[in-house]
Amino acid sequence: MTQVGWIGLGAMGRPMAARLLDGGHRVVGYDVDPAAVAALGDGAEAAASPAEAAAGCDVLAVMVATGAQADDVLFGNRGAAPELRPGAVVLIMATVGPAVVQAIAARLAEQGVHLVDAPVSGGVARATTGELLMMVSGPEEAVAAVAPLLDAMSSRAPVVGAAPGDGQKVKLVNQLLCGVHIAAAAEGLAYAEALGLDAEACWEVIRHGAAASFMLDDRGSRMVHGAGEQVKSALDIFVKDMGLVLAAARENVYPAPLASVAEQLYLTGRRAGLGPADDSNLIEVLRGKR
Amino acid sequence: MTQVGWIGLGAMGRPMAARLLDGGHRVVGYDVDPAAVAALGDGAEAAASPAEAAAGCDVLAVMVATGAQADDVLFGNRGAAPELRPGAVVLIMATVGPAVVQAIAARLAEQGVHLVDAPVSGGVARATTGELLMMVSGPEEAVAAVAPLLDAMSSRAPVVGAAPGDGQKVKLVNQLLCGVHIAAAAEGLAYAEALGLDAEACWEVIRHGAAASFMLDDRGSRMVHGAGEQVKSALDIFVKDMGLVLAAARENVYPAPLASVAEQLYLTGRRAGLGPADDSNLIEVLRGKR
């Protein structure tokens, strides 16, 4: 049994923390929204601050939305870092980009605390079943310490590097492809409509051939059938993630022309009020309807 | 048994015509390169011109490279059209775009000849095994007349519309996605390298998740392992096809920003001398090496 301080119990964090409770671990949870902690149920203990969640923990799990939030819950007012004992491990599973993670790792190292970087892919559905893909990096000993937790949350948790930030880098490659593939599905299906085709019939013909992608299948289905009110993954997530993809590209003097165009489409969607909507609604931008 | 005049016996046309011979059909073949006809083997008959290939045929199969060539073999010097009897069917399987096919169909209709539009996807490998995907459109009776031929060449030949050109339109949607997905794979894997990751290890981690595409698997493999001298599909094919995609987009006043950027990348690759090379070499453009 590991004692886990858990910070960030949103749509992804809650089902992930629930997997740890089911696995017999002790979870002390904190979220800016106290209702989110209560929603975790009987097994969890509630903390009133990041510091309280961190007190006495073996592992501090961080599943907030942004790099600024990750920094704040560790080093801000009533932050977790001062409570962490030497040898404790901070497990960052949010997608915040390599630069933030590297900076946090350096600061935690000063107090003898290790960082494991393990951003996830798979959405709420796989978070709930404990079948996420986690892209793990960090010092060998620290990775070993969190391995039982990763096992409970993921179906695959490959170690992609020894340096904190390597996991974030692999996640950004993943998000570059995902973000471009969603936009390509939207562009391709709206193109079919513009040519006068029945987009759904066209989609059925091509989706299992050389044009196939996970996103053409998954988001394409909601694009041609309509997403209705359901939000499986908000468009705002790709506004954030394409920003991280391009920031890291810029920092490494790498031109990423497709990702750059895809970012403009997500930003256009957000400007049109689609940020909280399912990201399959990006097709409205390509249709010229938003 | 159908008597087939076959025009265009290149890398794709030859194995496709061979499927018809194996299926017991009579094939009279013509190609600008007489050696290509000879290579078809004993069962085939050689014609010295498109007109000779067309004489007495039930179906004239056209598998040339461009729309200009399709027009020329039908209506140019010693062209096939004057030899076609009323009720004959011209079967265009080359990817030439909807505009050319619609124009040819209108001209053939004046002499009572039908056109079936059936561009293919699957490459030489599937052409050889008779497992192509064919996107078929045309008048019902004409489609029925060519059905035994389509059966011999394809594993799937969905009828996507009644108007000649509808098949080409679906193929262009397919090519938009394929062309963007190849470029996205190149951009994503070169991005991984730019971030200091091992691109092959990164590819292995992400290729079966949400980032998955047929092209990330197929071309991605040759991008990270190297294509060597093999040319499974020449980069020049996407120079041509992205041009057709964007011509049809323009004609329908549809902005296709991702396809547009992808076209620029293929054109850059061609400028760098990569036109005849395997299209997985597009990653060299993103690496900044070409």
UniProtKB/TrEMBL annotation, chains A, B:
Q: What is its EC number?
A: 1.1.-.-
Which SUPFAM superfamilies does the protein's record reference?
A: 6-phosphogluconate dehydrogenase C-terminal domain-like (SSF48179), NAD(P)-binding Rossmann-fold domains (SSF51735)
Q: Where is the 6-phosphogluconate dehydrogenase NADP-binding domain?
A: 3-159
Classify the source by domain of life. Answer: Bacteria
Report the enzyme's class at the first EC level: oxidoreductase
Keyword tags: NAD, Oxidoreductase
Alphabetized Pfam families for the sequence: NAD_binding_11, NAD_binding_2
InterPro entries, alphabetized: 6-PGluconate_DH-like_C_sf, 6PGD_dom2, 6PGDH_NADP-bd, HIBADH-like_NADP-bd, HIBADH-related, NAD(P)-bd_dom_sf
Q: Any signal peptide, and if so, which residues?
A: none
Query: Which GO MF terms are attached to this record?
Result: oxidoreductase activity
**Where would I find the 3-hydroxyisobutyrate dehydrogenase-like NAD-binding domain in this sequence?**
165-286
Q: What family is reported?
A: Belongs to the HIBADH-related family.
Protein name as annotated:
NAD(P)-dependent oxidoreductase
Species for this entry: Blastococcus deserti
